[in-house]
Amino acid sequence: MLSRLFLQSRATTLSVSYRRLAVVQLRTYKRPTPAAAPPLPSSSISPASNAQPTAPPAKKLGRQRRDEEITARFITLVDENGAVHRDVRLKQILGNLDRQSFFLVEVDPQAEPHPVCRITPKKAVFEKTKAAKRQNTARPEAVLKEVTFGWNVSPHDMGHKLSKAEQFLAKGNKVKIEVVAKKGQQRMPRDAQEAVIEKIVSQLKPFSKAMKNPSFVQGATCIIVFEGKAATE
Question: Which stretches make up the Translation initiation factor 3 N-terminal domain (predicted)?
């Protein structure tokens, strides 16, 4: 009986001690400080600007800026009759412009106080562009074609080779005629060689605009160069 009472008393004491310890822990407990939130990334979108959108420069366009490509709010206007109007609002001009017939072309973007713009007929602009393209189109470099045969060539073979040379010249190419002394063939006398040269020149000269005089190399090979006419000549 006494042992039972002792155990109950001991359990009560321990229970009270645990409660006091729990109260002390609650009083001394500190809540953990919440971790600071990571900084938000800065926005890549800049605030809206009041500036007008910029058009590509005339150099990138390959021509003068026109119509909505012009960025100035006010311009100096040259109308279709050549009259000059200063301090004109661009938006007003574009609103009244006959777009089917005219362009508003920026002819002097650096002018002060405002860029100079001219009302120009579309037909005139297109014709000017075509003329500039034709002027800037370079003629392809002439190709050198070579035609070779021997001094003792038959009239039929020489006629065939010279006909090919005529075709080359008609396309604007240069043609190099080379008459050679082939091995095993008897060397022709000088007067016979001159007859062959005369035949070549008389047949090809009408198809060429220039010719270099015949020249002999190593005494046996004759070279004649003809320059073909352009297709438009």
Answer: 67-134
